[in-house]
Write a structure and sequence with these properties.
alpha/beta, 9 helices, 37% helix, 260 residues, four-stranded antiparallel β-sheet, six-stranded mixed β-sheet
Amino acid sequence: MTATQARSGERVTAAVLIIGDEILSGRTQDVNLNAIAKYLATYGVDLCEARVVPDVEQEIVDAVNALRHRYDYVVTTGGIGPTHDDITADSVAKAFGVTAPEHPEIMAMLRERWGEPNAARRRMAHVPEGGTLVKNPVQGPPGFQIGNVFVLAGVPAIMRGMLDDVGPRLRTGAVVISKTVRVTGTGEGTIAAPLEAVAKAYPDLSIGSYPFFAPPDVYGANLVIRGRDPAEVEAAAEALVAALAEVGANGIERVAPDPA
């Protein structure tokens, strides 16, 4: 499969569904969301929503159905291993109204590694009817795609490896670019008005303020402008620099390379 380009001006959207009691309990810290967001951005796909749900079938079914109907793509992580709480494959199948039989290719992989797999390992071969495999170049069985839903592992290194097989399948959009204006020694109360004025003047852009503080007395904010039209992003950055200067903001600088 190869990526296809979206029509000019058409936005391509995605959501991430993180599955696992261990995330909600705080026992495991999720790092997959950040990796997926950055990966999708390189294909011009906007990550618009992220949800975390427990290892409960109906919770997974409801979330998958809500997200897959709202966004172009859904990426799930977690719950495709061999233990009793790894129910993602069967739950996603239920969301699509199909069964999840053992995939012969995965069964062959399991037999090659372990001989005849036990019931727990056979769980990793469950793939919804109509699903296609997502390659796993790291270790263990693959993930899968059904419709616009990609089901990936929760282990970060394995998940990132699987992403390499996801990208070529995506309908891609124009990549978002960003410019950053940094102010040092000026608080957000001073920069709020010029920032709002520029945001109103350029409604098609995303403009955010990200304050920083380094003890004992270094403070300021990175003002990040994002958009798909390079000329418009650059014009907004110049307008912001001028507006900040007008209100007497300190330490105004354009940051390159952009840290955002």
